[in-house]
Amino acid sequence: MKRFYLFAMGLAFLLCARAALGQIQPPVTETGFGTVGQGAAGINNPGVACGPTSVYNSFVYLTNLDPALGTKLTGSSAANTINTLATDMNLVAGSGIGADDLVNGKKQYISDVGLSNSITVESQVGSGNITAQFIYNQLAMGQDVELGFTWNGATGGHVVTLTGMSNFNPMANTATLSFLDPWGNGTAAEDTNPDPTSGDLEGGGPATPGTTAAPETGSLTFGSGVWTLSYVGSGAGPNGGSGTLVVVAAESVPEPSVIFLLSVVGSLVLLGSRRHRARVI
Length: 281
Known about the structure:
The chain is an alpha+beta fold. A hairpin with a 4-residue loop joins strand 4 (about 155-170) and strand 5. The protein has one domain. It is built from 6 helices and 8 strands.
């Protein structure tokens, strides 16, 4: 993993240097995620299982990056793995999970399957601690990212799996996010927690979530010291879906994928160098 950390530090430096110049960052897109909705068969407490379901869909992505992982992350079935993650995240029926539970539950699961020495969880917790640059850097390094947010104008919250980020302007503090919503195409809006003081990232209610995660797009904006994600179009959630980010969680890319990433970045650097020389001449 030493090569990964050296690569990550170098790439983060380059990204931060570019951001300091106030340039719009290149778009980042990831593919190969799981598409399980929290209403899929066998998932316990489907109305509040957004956190473990989003993490499972990320585990599919990591496994596709490194097939040598086999079923260590994804387990014997989606439902069994999601239910295990729910236990590790201290999911409470009718309430959901907390921001810290999302991060700690992922760490616990990764440790239990014997991968804590090769996969590292990185996170930011607390609305005032989250930065868009951190989110962008994780995606640019090929890592999976889950976002947790509490609804604005409604109680409760939600967790989604990011699949890309574009139009990121560090100076204007704006960006566009693409993500998989584990609520899917359910029969009603997201469930919300009746207790506004709980800080839970989901809540109990009568609505029925779908069995397949739905691709969504959202706008990311900054104001009053916090980042807000707003669904674009017909996204799920109260009033179209707008929430304050309270947790960002990501895992490092397993070792075999680092070599591929290094080769891609090296090619891009070489191409940029050639173009620069051509302009100078």
